[in-house]
Amino acid sequence: MNLKDVLDMGDYGVYVWSCYGLVLAMLVLNVWLGRRALAEQIVSAKRRLKMAGSSNSESSSS
Questions:
Q1: Which of the four pLDDT bands, split at 50, 70 and 90, describes residue 60?
Q2: How do the residues of the chain divide into helix, strand and coil, expressed in percent and rounded to 5?
Q3: What's the half-sphere exposure (Cβ side, CA atoms, 13 Å) at 18?
Q4: Which of these, 3, 17, 29, 42, is most buried using a 10 Å CB contact count?
């Protein structure tokens, strides 16, 4: 048994390896989109905290 036979998987290799590739691509996409969404939420939370802090300082100085 050689590597070509293992990768060929009895003439089903094209289907099997394309499914593995698709699953891997979806996992990478899921991680990437999750990290991007988290970064956007962190920026949004910092912006809200900054706005809340500035409005509190304005009301306390009056």
A1: low
A2: 90, 0, 10
A3: 5
A4: 17
